[in-house]
Retinol dehydrogenase 13 (Collichthys lucidus), 312 residues
Amino acid sequence: MQKCAEVIRDFVKNHATGLIVFVAGAGVLALRRWLAGGVCRSKVSLDGKTVLITGANTGIGKETALDMAKRGARVILACRDITRARIAADEIRQQSGNGNVVVKKLDLSSLQSVRDLAKDVQENEERLDILINNAGIMMCPKWKTEDGFEMQFGVNHLGHFLLTNCLLDLLKKSAPSRVVIVSSLAHEKGSIHFDDINLDKDYRREESYRQSKLANVLFCRELAARLEGTGVTVYSLHPGVIRTELGRHLFSTFALWQRIIIMPFFMLIKNPREGAQTTIYCAVDESLANSSGLYYRHVFDSPTFSLKLTSL
């Protein structure tokens, strides 16, 4: 026994560097897997269903659209940049084998654009089974929408608020149907500044973002209450921290040395496919059919999909 212990000590001593690298590497891989969260396991088919996703030309919106297309749905990519949206639609058609992927113009910073899209959908779509309010902007400078609202509040909440309400009749007609609202964990530190909704007195990027995300969650709760008994259910969610274009305005504010330090951490956070899983879960999972008005986010305790539900 003593000889065995000596052999082990000698081995560790002679291979200390290699063992440290191995353990560190295994730890990083384990952390990366944990941060990735779970995967939506639902196999539900969406044949004959129509799904509209805002901001679906990139990031988790695009990955969500790809998943919906693979399930057989007619998928509408509602996007501001039509050129990029058409490229994304072509890629989704090729990867999913589903040719029923269409692009429609939507600029959430323009309420007229929102109304135009809603009118288009009402006149040309026979049904709408799932509406996914995915598009958003984060930590941008003090910009205003076409209608004079602060940009983050206008795009993240007001545009989607109007779009959802304009499409409610079609959603009710298509019931059972769902509205999925992509919010953020940032809402927990948010406040609604009713006396200064555009934050003209003291604009702070992070406070504006938090306010808009809190508005998303509150909208989900109130809409669910108002739609009780109609067959339309509503869900809000935090998708996690993800490598997407959403953080471009925040990243641009960092000094060069800060960017260099942060870059390695980007390899640990979710990719868009992983980040889309909570949205997909809320959109299709059968177990949620009788739930409405709750907020969903990942719990990293299992390789299968699990969620923490929160009631305000």
